Amino acid sequence: MSKFKVIIAEKMDIRGIELLQNQFDVDVCIGISREELLKRIHDYDALLVRSATQVNDELLEKATKLRIVGRAGNGTDNIDIHAATKKGVIVANTPESNSISACELGIALMMACARDVSVADKDMKAGKWSRNSFEGVELYNKTLGIIGLGRIGSLMATRMKAFGMKIVAYDPYISDERFSRFGVKKAENLDDLLKVSDFITIHTPRTEETIDMISFDEIDKMKDNVILVNVARGKIVNEDALYQGLKGGKIRGAGIDVHAVEPRYESPLYEFDNFIPTPHIGANTSEAQENVGIAIAQQVSNGLNGEIVETA
Ligand code: NAD
Ligand code: MLT
User: Fold this and answer.
1) Residue 144: helix, strand or coil by DSSP?
2) What is the best residue among 97, 103, 152, 284 to mutate for testing ligand 1's pocket, by most ligand atoms within 8 Å of CB?
3) How far is residue 252's CA from residue 1's CA, in Å, rounded to a whole number?
4) How many CB atoms lie within 10 A of CB 29?
5) How high is the pLDDT of residue 165?
6) Smallest Cα–Cα separation from 74: which of 229, 228, 203?
7) Among residues of the chain, what percentage have pLDDT more than 90?
8) 50 CB contacts (<8 Å, ≥6 apart)?
């Protein structure tokens, strides 16, 4: 019997690749163009992606042999799960494997904004010693507003309590018990969180409801000099509103890992020194990539071997 064929379309840890190579015919085609993928997908039983490959009707129609799509990571907003399920294609992801890394990047961005790390770095490398122009803010005793108290939001709560922050969270989909378990004050609505938070960090999925969740009105309602962090998904923060919030000085700093358009090479937001962007690197640590690579390879292997798969 011929072996199942697997195509890996985006960067994945070698340990995961090896796990698959031990059982299947694997084509490692990292960075394959869309055109090429559409041309070749009919030949494969499994497809592995991260967040850049759109697995939609266009691709699924051509994927006549496909049994499983493995999303090496958490968010599945690049995959049309409904369309895949209708075609009998399993969609699997690895929601836990990179949560700590994403959370830690959020903390790094929060602190970089609070202490102007990116401007200080740029100044010194430009030959300046502008020590007196920097006056940061402490995290201690400040209120951190967490939007979405799921896996990453709750990791954030636990960690930032150790910094002496007061934590308030808004998440209409979880029980009161979860708020108390993490020692977090529950905001009954988003406005309540916006009004009291010195720092705001977003940890929701991107859904119809969360797109533009932070826009002009919401930024208006925030405290002056707020620091805003988004390592969740692009478009949850409206970028025009963010521009205005930075321009008008309402927002002290914004640490943003995820963008309305990815990849992104230019943006009006780049005029602000206190806008600190990173190129969607929340999960880019050796630990997370190893965890994710092995976990998704195992899921895909289970799917092809007829074992149980935890579906996304
Ligand atoms: P999760 O599903 O564990 O938690 C999300 C939480 O958001 C849930 O508790 C849910 O109830 C809540 N939520 C949903 N809609 C909401 C709304 N309208 N208002 C308030 N809360 C709402 O997800 P997670 O694993 O914590 O991931 C959070 C986000 O981080 C996702 O968007 C994920 O794709 C993203 N992520 C990004 C990176 C990165 O590289 N930057 C890495 C991992 C995850
Ligand atoms: C995720 O959802 O897991 C992150 O966006 C990171 C990734 O895609 O690798």
Assistant:
1) strand
2) 152
3) 62
4) 15
5) 98
6) 203
7) 98
8) 10, 11, 12, 71, 72, 73
From the number of C-beta atoms within 10 Å of its C-beta (0-12, 13-18, 19+), residue 203 rates as: buried
Three-state DSSP class for residue 212:
coil
Residue 148 near ligand 1, beta carbon < 6 Å: yes
Atom of ligand 1 nearest to the CA of 236: 32
| Backbone dihedral angles phi then psi of residue 10, each to the nearest 5 degrees | -135, 165
ipTM, interface predicted TM-score of the complex: 0.99
Q: Which atom of ligand 1 is nearest to the CA of 282?
A: 40
**Residue-wise pLDDT tens digits, 277-301:** 999 999 999 999 999 999 999 999 9
Q: Is 246 in the pocket of ligand 1 (CB under 6 A)?
A: no
Catalytic residue numbers, as ranges: 233, 262, 280
Ligand 1 pocket check for 293: Cβ under 6 Å: no
